[in-house]
Write a structure and sequence with these properties.
single chain, globular, mainly alpha, 492 residues
């Protein structure tokens, strides 16, 4: 067999293996778009161009087949009205060209949200999307650690292909950035991946405990049993994301990661874990801001890497124009001058540079950036639409159905067996097993949905003191999380 035939055979086998691992969509008409979306999300962080192509093909399917249904939804109509408002703000912008370019960071993602909220309909799809994000975070972590400790750097000539360059020692130097252009953007991405990985890990632990509690009882086909190798992988993913988060040196991400662990501990009732995390976090906080002499004593125990970063002693004597307080004050003054239409998207940078002689891409607060650049009404409208989706998600979480849409077939099977169990005692055992399985699936689905709400909430909180929407990958991921929450909430 020649080399050409071997390559063809290898490519065919790879395609078959990949296809066998892709998840079935509940609507056969959307199977191909869902396949493209899964593959696109898997390669998105490393090869954004190809990943975006896969996501676009995944988006095109629902837009074509469910356009009428999508266009009739009140929420999507709300985003259409918001799009018109943003175009109006661009018309009245200080620099119209920049403002119209800035629409790229919003309008396409409204379409992505509308399409993927129709494509993602079940809890099983939430599981699959979590796995795609977590798996794709591993090479990002490895490249970041190599960048930080081994001096790895990317090849500039390949930037048009990959869309990123690996900067030795990170950007800024000393802070891990991996395949992203800045450490804070990586920190936001890792925060999302860390929370989803932790959700999968806790679901796996819950499943293993439920299997043990049932001893040797046979289990029908269900989501819960996961091979031990997957548990080890999830453990590695959680630890790897946590370590990488530390080396991004992002105080924002550190705090959100701690809050996420506390939220999961409260959710699961892990009192010992809750006490341990609170103790460690309090000790680190007191080493930075506690009273004397306690502070000095704790600083002998806690590495300066943590408390010096929290107090900003690691980067002293920074110019006033680079401080967040200065940027926020300037953005708020812009809002006060033009509260209705703002100054136009992407107009903060030239105006701030003209007055402060310092170039900054954004004011390190999404809320203040939007009020300054698009006005207060458009900002409130955007956050109102997003808040509505989250509110529906929280309501669903609080009133999670006894049998979710993903396991209706098991509910039907159980109901059919109830009548037979009155005659044949042996089948009553099967019934009880099926009911236990359904309860296990429901509980882990509930946990995964909770992790989505938590991940998007963390992303939102991150953007209160930073702006990550200028990175195509993080912006896309955050809108996908919101679309997933909306899609499952609508179906349930």
């Amino acid at each position: 067999m020649n080399i050409k035939n071997r390559l063809k055979l290898a490519a065919k086998q790879t395609a078959e293996n990949l296809k066998s691992r892709l998840q079935k969509h509940p609507d056969p008409r959307l199977q191909i778009p869902w396949n493209f979306a899964q593959v696109g999300m898997l390669i998105f962080p490393l090869i954004p161009i190809l990943g975006a192509l896969g996501l676009f093909l995944g988006l095109a399917g629902p837009c074509k087949q469910k356009f009428r249904q999508i266009s009739r939804r009140p929420l999507n109509r709300g985003f259409a009205i918001l799009s018109v408002l943003l175009v109006i703000t661009a018309v009245f912008a200080h620099n119209r060209i920049e403002a119209f370019i800035g629409l790229y960071n919003f309008l396409p993602f409204f379409i992505l949200f509308a399409a993927f909220s129709s494509l993602i309909q079940t809890s099983a799809q939430l599981w699959q999307l979590s796995w795609m994000i977590v798996i794709s975070s591993i090479p990002v972590i490895i490249l970041g650690l190599g960048q930080q400790f081994l001096g790895w750097s990317g090849i500039d000539q390949l930037q048009p292909v990959f869309g990123w360059v690996l900067a030795s020692q990170g950007n800024p130097p000393g802070r891990m950035a991996s395949v992203f252009m800045y450490a804070n953007i990586l920190a936001c991405y890792l925060t999302i991946a860390f929370i989803l990985a932790l959700g999968l890990w806790m679901a796996e632990v819950s499943c293993q405990l439920s299997v043990v509690s049932r001893h040797h009882l046979p289990m029908p086909n269900a989501q819960c049993p996961i091979p031990n190798s997957q548990f080890l992988f999830l453990s590695f993913a959680v630890i790897g994301n946590a370590v990488a988060l530390i080396y991004t040196n992002s105080r924002n991400a550190w705090g959100l990661a701690v809050l996420a662990v506390l939220a999961f501990a409260l959710y699961a009732g892990y009192k010992k874990l809750l006490a341990a995390v609170l103790s460690v976090a309090s000790t680190v906080f007191l080493s930075a801001f506690g009273p004397e002499p306690l502070r000095q004593y704790l600083r002998r125990i806690i590495p300066a890497f943590f408390w010096a970063r929290l107090t900003d002693e690691m980067f002293p004597n920074r110019p006033t124009a680079t401080l967040r307080k200065t940027q926020w004050e300037f953005a708020w003054s812009m809002t006060q001058q033009r509260p209705w239409t703002g100054w136009g998207l992407r107009n903060f940078t030239p105006l701030y540079q003209a007055q402060m002689q310092e170039w900054l891409g954004h004011p390190h607060s999404l809320i203040l950036m939007l009020t300054a650049e698009t006005g207060i009404p458009a900002t409130l409208f955007l956050f109102g639409l997003v808040g509505w989706v989250l509110a529906r998600g929280v309501v669903l979480l609080a009133n999670w159905p006894v049998f979710s849409g993903d396991i209706k077939h098991e509910q039907i099977a159980t109901q059919e067996q109830v009548e037979t169990a009155l005659v044949i005692n042996q089948q009553s055992i099967i019934i009880s097993q099926n009911q236990i399985v359904c309860q296990d699936v429901r509980a882990t689905d509930h946990l995964i949905f909770f992790s989505y709400l938590l991940a998007f909430a963390a992303c939102t909180l991150f953007n209160t003191v930073d702006v990550t929407l200028f990175d195509f990958r993080v912006n896309t991921t955050s809108w996908l999380l919101l679309a997933a929450i909306c899609g499952v909430s609508q179906r349930e």
